[in-house]
Predict the structure of UDP-glucuronate decarboxylase.
Amino acid sequence: MTKTIVITGVAGFLGSHLAAELLHIPQTTVIGLDNLSTGKMSNMEHLLQLDTFQFIKYDVADTRVLNIKALENIHEIYHLASPASPKFYQATPFATIDVNIQGTKNMLELAKRTGAKLLYTSTSETYGDPEVHPQSETYRGNVNTWGPRACYDEAKRMGEVFCYLYHSLYQVPVKVARIFNTYSAGLRNDDGRVISNFVTQALTGADISVYGDGTQTRSFCYVTDNIRGLILMMEKEVANGQIINIGNPIEYKIIDVAHLVKELTHSQSKVTFHPLPEDDPKQRRPDINKAKQLLGWEPQITLEQGLQLTIASYKQKLSIS
């Protein structure tokens, strides 16, 4: 039997990678939804050549998405749609709120109607600027509702509430992945996040911009590890009704990442320091014991390996030999 899978946000970084991976599975078709607010058609060039992939340009926050005929007989929904970079979600705060609240409700309603399983991609941002380290799924977070990141952080948290309600009240099979910093060669080089900024700046000879003193930490997960975790979550019944961290538990200071990128690119760029953005977390590192126990999952790609792949791809994008 053919399995039909819906991916929202399919033209984005994670969505396009996920679609490509799922389409390698025999007897699988993918219907991708995206309003192209931050996603790019170029991310789907290879997918659009396939008979097993259908793209529908649509805003999943619009309740009329529930009337799309192609979505009547589906088996799984990966709800990834949302700006994820502070640069983009702060530029469109109300749309970010809509896609994570109304868009999530719409996809849960679609799952309820069709009997499909749903995986919602939440975020490590639900932990805010954490006072507990590393962060486990039981930690309730330290999020500021009165600041520039709140439109994303709080909307994702509300999306989780909708997932809880549809699971507990209507028995919809729901899984919530809290994703920590993910990167790869496919990340837009104008994305504004740490890895894309550092690699682009190093390759073009621009100053490498470190915000704050660089002692704040992050944990970086290569995209193939992330996608493997999401697919395992969808497959495993034991993940039903669970929130699970998906990220790399190895922690790096931002200043060390800047110097590693400079070293790997053989760049002459200077490292410069700039004011830390408001509400920027000081530490970010997942406790992945739950993922290990329930999914048998942990990352395999080291930061250096992932950076080398990313640098090689960005060189091609930027036409640097």
